Amino acid sequence: MSTVVLLVLTGLGLGALYFLVASGLSLIFGLMDVLNFAHGALMSIGAYGTWWAASGRLPGAGPGGLGFVLAVAFGTAVGTAAAVVLELAVIRPLYTRPREQILATVGVGLAVPALLSAIWGADARPFPAPDALSGTFGLLGAQVPLNRLVLIAAAVIVLIALKVFLGRTRHGLVVRAGVEDRAMVTALGTDVRKAFTLVFAIGGAAAALGGAIGGLYFGSVDPEQGTSLLIFAFVVVVMGGMGSLTGAALASVGVGLVQQFANYYTTDGLGDLAVVVLLAALLLVRPRGLTGRLA
Amino acid sequence: MTTATEPRGNARTADPHLAGRAGPLRRATRWWPAALLAVLLVAPYSALPLPGLLDGPIGSPGNLQLLALCLVFGALATGYDLLLGRTGLLSFGHALYFAAGTYVTNTVMLEAGLPFAASAVLGLLAGVALAALLGAVSLRVSGIGFSMVTLAFAQAGSILVQRDPGGVTGGEEGRAAPADRLPASLVGIDHTANLYWIALAYLVLVLAVVHWAVRSPTGRVWEGIKENERRVEMLGLRPYGFKLIAFVLAGTLAALGGIVYLLLTGGATPQTTTSDFTLSLLVMVVLGGSGTRWGPMLGGVLYTWADHRLGDLAGSGAVAGLPAVLRVPLSQPLFLLGALFVAVIYLLPGGVVRLPRRLRAARTPRATPDREEAPAP
Asked: Where does the sequence pass through the membrane (chain B) (predicted)?
């Protein structure tokens, strides 16, 4: 029982991490038809920003208490800024060439981790975790690390915030309408392009937040972390249905749980394989993903 | 005879300067592939140094190895473009079929003890079978879904190889090819020239197959699918079968490339199974020019050369002496390649191969207004 509880919470924590990356990917793809290969790089930027601030280089930030909150906020802010720069400098000039947009993000996705490893080395750096979050707590006889809860809480907050933003605000309305039918929104006189930067900023913030607290989960940061997570985030996005937040949330929980349980009860690594096979099987049965959104 | 020469005579009188220059030039440049092939064939005998481009004489084993790698990747990119540029299929799983060729050949040699030739045939067949099976499955979805399913299959293959089931694949280390199973003329540093010729033969084969395939009736349908798949359906053709042919053909060429790569590098490494490997093929194709005859080859050669030479540059004294702002990014070949790739997408849509045409086009509009403005006043 205690193993199952631990596996469920670890799976949910991993799923939360996937959701933080996939929510932005899904919105960006839904609105702009851009499969953002640089999203893992945004996550790495968030992770490195937090690590940089938390190791005492930013005044006021540190590995404990409020200092850590500040460090996470700093990492998220850097990631958001990077996402906005990416959209304005790389994606915007290529609006008329959709395939080139994807290719340009591939280039950025290659360059950024290389740059990170050029500056801070290719090896993993230990992530300074605050003492308050590095302990465990007892639940139904299992000792669960606290950072799983932090991840789950962050993902739930992001999900609710995004739902509120999309459902209750005017900008959210434009984004939702754009995901539904971009040509029609443009024809009705709303410039959807203004929402592009916004969606990129939101997606970048979520991914950078994922990177920032993903450091707690992994215990270290390395340049390739974001990129290796990106493939599973893609799997989540496609499974959930492109452009659907709820779908992405459901799929990330499913993927995280399947991965953890298969890795534990069979051999290590088979969980990753199971997820991939699951994706192929799902797409063949339902080519439009779980929620039936347009793929 | 006279009617054939007459227009040319008229043209010469109309603009003798232009025709006199372009005629022989064009006739001479038509044969440049043959001339290039001849040069490449005799390259191993050359002791000519290419300062800046290569380290030392062309014929040295190290340089021949690099040149052979360039040729292999040029050919791989050409094969990959069969999907991307000719049929409009964005596959993220091409590395799988390449790796199938490498790993199956190597594993059969190591585990079953078969000689190289038999193992290579098995490796090629495995690549064909895998491409046919997975292509048949993944082509059932289209667009981004197709890209994702191919990515998923390739990722599954990559995980499988790195998990090292039963010690067969060698995990993260990979496995060296058994020297005693290979023909003696393909082993050792003295025989690099033979490997180079094999790589060259592979490139010529791929170029010929792709050239022939895109000019065949099937190739016309591929072009149609790329332009407008719905219209191909309207014409009464089923795109699925045609796309599958393109997928299997590209997979077969990739598997063959994997076998050449196995010979060239003397082993199978898990790096060739990763999605990064497919992405680098994508970069090569776009760098050179997707959907053109020579572009992907050019891109593959340029990328491979840059990847190796930039690594040397990063380790050289010239870079070490630079201030940190310049030195740090320059020490990472992948950063330079990524940045270069983004720059090419912006500045050279259509790739390096369109560069001469773009230059000509940039010159022509400037010349035409001049001519038009002259009679206006």
From this structure: 31-52, 64-83, 90-110, 116-137, 195-214, 240-264, 279-303, 334-353
